[in-house]
Amino acid sequence: MNVQLNSWGNLALDRVTQKLSGHHIPWVIKARESALGRFMVHGFPTRQDEEWKYTDVSTIGKRTSLAPDNIPPSPSSEAALFAWTLAQNNVHLMVFVNGHYSNELSAIGELPSGAKLESLADLLDGKNNLSASFFDREHEHTIFSALNNALATDGAVLQLDPETVLNKPVYLLFIASGSGTAIYPRNILILGENSRATVIEHYFGMMEIHNFTNVVTQITLGDKAELHHCKLEQEGKSAFHVAGIHADQAANSRFVSLSFALGGRLARNDITSRMHGPECCCTLDGLYLLDGKQHIDHHTRIDHLAPSCTSREHYKGILDGASHGVFNGKVVVHPFAVKTDAHQANHNLLLSRQAEIDTKPQLEIFADEVKCTHGATVGQLDNESLFYLRSRGINAESARSLLIYGFANDIISRVDEPDMRNRIEHLVLDRLPQGEQIKELL
Q1: Which residues are within 8 A (CB) of 295 and not within 5 positions of it... i.e. 6 or more apart?
Q2: Residue 13: what pLDDT?
Q3: Whole-angstrom Cα distance, residue 439 to residue 332?
Q4: Distance (Å, whole) CA 403 – CA 15
Q5: In 10 A of CB 142, how many CB atoms?
Q6: Is residue 230 within 8 Å of residue 201, measured between CB atoms?
Q7: Which segments of 236-355 are extended strands (E)?
Q8: Torsion sign across C-alpha atoms 391, 393, 397, 401
Q9: What does the alpha-carbon distance between residue 113 and residue 115 come to, in Å, rounded to a whole number?
Q10: Cβ pair 294, 265 in contact under 8 A
């Protein structure tokens, strides 16, 4: 057992799980016990673990409790106002405070026939029509997934019958409200054959909050199903955030993932897709914007398991101050996955001498007749472009900010939902010098 587990103090499984959802269901108890046992044996990963060698998570247990809150505090007035504002938009809104569903702040609205959007805790405490397979060990992609499996408090469960289309986005707002808090959401998205949906995950916290969020989102796409998934991480600058987004795709399905990491002292995102049937399409795009001493880590993996599948991956990073970014992207073309078409790219912009990026795009190919490319770049602002803007009467700070925004907008512009795209655009501009003036120029 690693030394980091001492931060648990006298935390015992029966003390915690007896107040979690599903505590009266034998298979839920067994699944939680098994998952926590695996975590206790392994403990937090260390920098000796290959997948974590650039990311030190030892401080998580020292600054926050690992036990989830059973009774969440009321959200701040700012967070409540933000939830109310979202409810006025054309979305199906679910709000969670410290990992617990808030019916008062949510506005799910009317769903089409064949669509269900429910709280995981309500399902486990009520009719329990959720398959136990979603809590199997095979869904634990990292040791943090095992901890989530053991202590998940609540989350969103979206189920779409075949041929069901959601015309409005599902907006999942997770509010961190309380320092030293551990938050364990578990989201499950199940799209039947030829169904379609857009899902937004937004993690929101105050600047002074130093919480620990450990979230897992499981995605199952049926034949010809299509999911557009957008995640915005906007927690406080002292927060810890460890997340997994894991998709399983059937034939002819389409999965589009957009990840925006703007907040947190330390954030880690593991995003994976397994394409089990032919003619699948997977797109993973992301933007991370760091300053100060922020550390943001992205690990992605796309498994081509069937013929004639296509994957596209494009991540961009903007790093300032003494920040540290990590990108490790892997595309695996398995045997018999002939006619695979895969492209992967990671581009990074360093704005200071102290900023650092470790980037490692990878291809593993075990099949013939494939078209696969990958690459990474690390650079600074182009002096010729700066000179061009300065010669047009734009001051130095505005010129720098325009170039930075142009670099980021390549990813921002890929967000289909207009309100979400505008929100991310303004958050990025607010981080730039002369951001208000640039808004007027755009």
Answers
A1: 55, 265, 266, 267, 323, 324, 325, 326
A2: 52
A3: 41
A4: 53
A5: 21
A6: yes
A7: 240-249, 254-261, 266-275, 281-290, 295-304, 310-319, 324-333, 341-350
A8: negative
A9: 6
A10: yes
- What is the Cα–Cα distance from 275 to 9, expressed in whole angstroms? 42
Token representation of residue 313: 């991956």
Q: Is the pLDDT of residue 149 over 80?
A: yes
- The answer to whether 332 touches 300, Cβ cutoff 8 Å, is no
Give the separation between CA 209 and CA 228, rounded to whole angstroms.
Answer: 30
- What is the three-class DSSP state of 358? strand
Name the residue type at position 123: L
Handedness of CA 35, 38, 42, 43 (dihedral sign): positive
Kindly state the tokens that stand for 89. Answer: 């938009």
- Tokens representing residue 86 in the block: 């979202």
Tokens of 4: 């980091």
Could you tell me which residues come within 8 angstroms of residue 49 by beta carbon, excluding any fewer than 6 positions away?
Answer: none
Which pairs with CB-CB distance under 8 Å and at least 24 residues apart come from 397-401? 397/433, 397/434, 398/433, 398/434, 398/437, 398/438, 400/433, 401/429, 401/432, 401/433, 401/434, 401/435, 401/438
Predicted confidence (pLDDT) per residue in 339-376, tens digit: 999 999 999 999 999 999 999 999 999 999 999 999 99
C-alpha of 291 from chain center: 19
3-class SS at 238? coil
Q: What is the pLDDT of residue 206?
A: 73
The model carries a pTM of 0.94
Q: What is the dihedral of CA 356, 242, 232, 174, to 10 degrees?
A: -150
Three-state SS for 438?
A: helix
Residue 116 CB-half CA count within 13 A: 14
Q: Which of 227, 103, 243 is nearest to 170 (CA)?
A: 227
For 276, 312, 333, the CA distances from 338, given in Å and listed in that order, are 13, 17, 8
CA atoms of 182 and 67, how far apart (whole Å): 6
- Which of 38-47, 78-87, 141-150, 254-263 ranks highest by mean pLDDT? 254-263
pLDDT of residue 411: 97
The lowest-confidence range among 136-150, 191-205, 219-233 is 136-150
Closest alpha carbon to 282 in 307, 261, 304: 304
